Amino acid sequence: MDFKRNILITGGAGFIGSHVVRLFVNKYPDYRIINLDKLTYAGNLANLKDVEQKPNYAFVKADICDFGAMQETLRQYRVDGIIHLAAESHVDRSIKDPFIFARTNVLGTLTLLQAAKEYWESLPEGYEGKRFYHISTDEVYGALQMTCPEGKENPISAHKVYGDAFFHEYTKYNPHSPYSASKAGSDHFVRAFHDTYGMPTLVTNCSNNYGPYQFPEKLIPLFINNIRHRKPLPVYGKGENVRDWLYVEDHARAIDLIFHRGKTADTYNIGGFNEWKNIDIVKVVIRTVDRLLGRPEGADMDLITFVADRKGHDMRYAIDSTKLRDELGWEPSLQFEEGIEKTVRWYLDNQAWVDNVTSGDYQRYYEEMYAGK
Ligand code: NAD
Ligand code: DAU
């Protein structure tokens, strides 16, 4: 069967990638979607059970650092578009073991870029009709000051904000963690391939995502699971750090829009206009889990346990995504309260998924990481 487009999505078995694969497979039956994933601890094909039998879906198990495998996949599937999400994504892991972050995020991205360059340049039409879309993070911009610790109204957001500055597309890169340094490195390589070879690239920098299928090492799913089992909730430092939260399906919608209509060589920031202090998020999550489990609301507040701060912990992230709104008409569709309710419900209804991904090696790693906290 001939497809209108052949799109390679890397990291499609992970959290955000699985939502992007599902959206594209269902929305574009005339596109072939090739999900390429190494299936690390964070990659789980169970995330895609509902689409794996579709005729326009294919899976390739490969490491993005394997140049031969990248060349082979691009040629075999005649790939004309790449949405690159494969990465090591957890900041705490990058603090413990930075090398794997440099390998996957920097060298892996470079490997994929070089393979795409050689393949596309070998075709008669060259780069025409091609696109290399790299998914990055707001963490590359560094940390914003918390100039209004009590929070204040702000014209760009219906939600209260905790500072006067925001991350814009032109904000200078200033990464602090090995994770964000590796993502910054990969972003620079992507832009360099446009500037040097004319590859049609695009980069987006998104804020914190939440929703179904997120690995329970990240704040929201970890805490939902711990509350359910009445285990301590390790809040780093004083819990004052601020993140800007976006429901994962809204990120996937933005990726679809930008992949199709974003300007080549451009950058778009994607954010929820939704700043929260960690401690306030934790309280919302506790109340929601308690209510849905039929416990008195707030009964589990005693699980909050303040632990040593994350090393180099960025104080505040806040994205200004007005460019994306004004140019392409994207806005987050869900209010946070609604998104959290959906998310908590999903984790409580899918305990088997959580048990599966938190068993074995991961569980041992987790116990070691938090030993003594
Ligand atoms: P994730 O850790 O849930 O998934 C990463 C996926 O990449 C997994 O399926 C894993 O198996 C795969 N992978 C890892 N190394 C690989 C390799 N060498 N070769 C092939 N596949 C490999 O990550 P996520 O949270 O879904 O994030 C996806 C992307 O979005 C990342 O690039 C991340 O930097 C970026 N991002 C994440 C967030 C967030 O809040 N989660 C926000 C902004 C940007
Ligand atoms: O901003 C986008 C980034 O968001 C993505 O690029 C990363 O891939 C993603 O992991 C996420 O990074 P964070 O470090 O912000 O997410 P995490 O869920 O690990 O932590 C959110 C906040 O909660 C952060 O301030 C640290 C704090 N935290 C986290 C954990 C896991 C705790 O207080 N306790 C915890 O146990």
Q: What can you tell me about this protein's structure?
A:
- The chain has 373 residues and is α/β, with parallel strands linked by helices.
- It has a single domain (5-369), classed as Rossmann fold (3-Layer(aba) Sandwich), CATH 3.40.50.
- Helix content is 40%, strand content 18%.
- It contains 12 helices and 14 strands.
- It has helices spanning 15-27, 67-76, 91-96, 98-121, 178-197, 219-228, 248-261, 278-293, 322-328, 336-349, 351-357, 360-369, and strands at 5-10, 31-37, 57-61, 81-84, 131-137, 152-154, 157-161, 201-206, 208-210, 233-236, 242-247, 267-270, 275-277, 304-307.
- The strands form 4 sheets. The chain has a 7-stranded parallel beta sheet, sandwiched between helices.
- 44% of the residues are buried.
- The model has no long low-confidence stretch (mean pLDDT 95).
- Bound molecules: nicotinamide-adenine-dinucleotide and 2'deoxy-thymidine-5'-diphospho-alpha-D-glucose.
- Nicotinamide-adenine-dinucleotide (NAD) is lined by residues 10-11, 13-17, 37-40, 42-43, 63-65, 85-89, 104, 108, 135, 137, 183, 206, 208-209, 215.
Short structural description:
This protein has 373 residues and is of the alpha/beta class. It has helices at residues 15-27, 67-76, 91-96, 98-121, 178-197, 219-228, 248-261, 278-293, 322-328, 336-349, 351-357, 360-369; strands at 5-10, 31-37, 57-61, 81-84, 131-137, 152-154, 157-161, 201-206, 208-210, 233-236, 242-247, 267-270, 275-277, 304-307. The protein has a single domain, classed as Rossmann fold (3-Layer(aba) Sandwich).
